[in-house]
Amino acid sequence: MSRRAVILGGTGQLGASSARTLLDDGWSVTIAHRGERRLPSGVLESAETALVDRSGADAVVDLCRGADLVLDCLAFAPADAAVHGRLVGDVGSVVVISTASVYRGENGTWLDVATGEDDFPVLPVPVTEEDAIVDAPDDAGYSAQKAALERALLAIKGLPVTILRPGAIHGPQSPALREWFFIKRALDGRERIPLAHRGASRFSTSASVNVAELVRLAGDQPGRRVLNAVDDPAPTALEIGQAVLAHLGRSAEFVLLDGGPVDGFGGHPWAVPRPIVLSMEAARRELGYEPVGSHRATIGSAIDWMLDAVRDADWRERFPALATRYGASEWFDYDAEDRLLAH
């Protein structure tokens, strides 16, 4: 009999990618969702579906009981760990998605609370799973909530849980593909692209297919562990831009600026003043993990998916999270950019 996986949040970016990976590996997969979004192609045809709200604990427990793997892409706060406590002894392996932003810098700050270069977190390069994480009231923002969730999960005795910490996720079904910063410039024929910090900023990216491979391995090897889940090596902003343009068959001059953005000029989604680079050694050691591909090797499917998604729609309406999360409405002031590049 094939192994059974249940994915909570299977219509999202990581859920859909994990479903494809598991289906290809011979798993039977049940996608649990609220029915608000269509299942992505390649999943709809092969997976079973269940209309379940993550907040309905009894229904979730009934659905997951007896599964060989439960992937939870929706857990956000410590209270969300409770449903997994009820599954101890009834599931083979649990995988829960956390975030790389739980790491706390040596200067006591973290991404959620940083306001600029002076208080941006100072992290080791690379960051390992043994490094400190946020320890703040669990109502103090996204990272604090996720850190509290991790502690609540690890406090459940006997729960075979693997907690994954992805970085800047990319892949098909992305609600906010950061690479749009370069994609739109290429489509608009921009010949020069300014990059702050000389394009050397590194903020670990995570291909959804690489995260899905970690999910698959954790399903095969149940345990209690916390693992980083990022692309290795971590590309620089310049390398990301080069990869996007290469996939699109376009070219442009990258203008490498000293220092950080000035009034937004030279800013981009990876413009961090200090590197956030995560180690993948623990995943290799504990699971025998090898990446499906680098950022450059995996970004093409995300680009193609996004181009198809905006073919007949305004990108601002199709991807509102780009503006609300990353300020994308300020990315494309070409007139101001040209004036500054002329000096």
What would your notes on this structure say?
- The chain has 343 residues and is of the alpha/beta class.
- Helix content is 32%, strand content 14%.
- Helix 1 links the parallel strand 1 and strand 2.
- The mean pLDDT is 94.
- Which runs of at least 5 residues are low in confidence (pLDDT < 50)? none
Strand order of the largest sheet: 3-2-1-4-5-6-10
Beta-strand content estimate: 5-15%
User: What is the overall pLDDT average?
Assistant: 94
Radius of gyration: 20 Å
Largest sheet: 7 strands, parallel
Total helix count?
Answer: 12
Residue share in helix: 25-40%
Class per helix and strand makeup: alpha/beta
Note the gap between the termini: 68 Å
Number of strands: 11
Instruction: Tell me the overall shape.
Output: globular
Q: What order do the helices and strands follow?
A: EHEEHEHEHEEHEEHEHEHHHHH
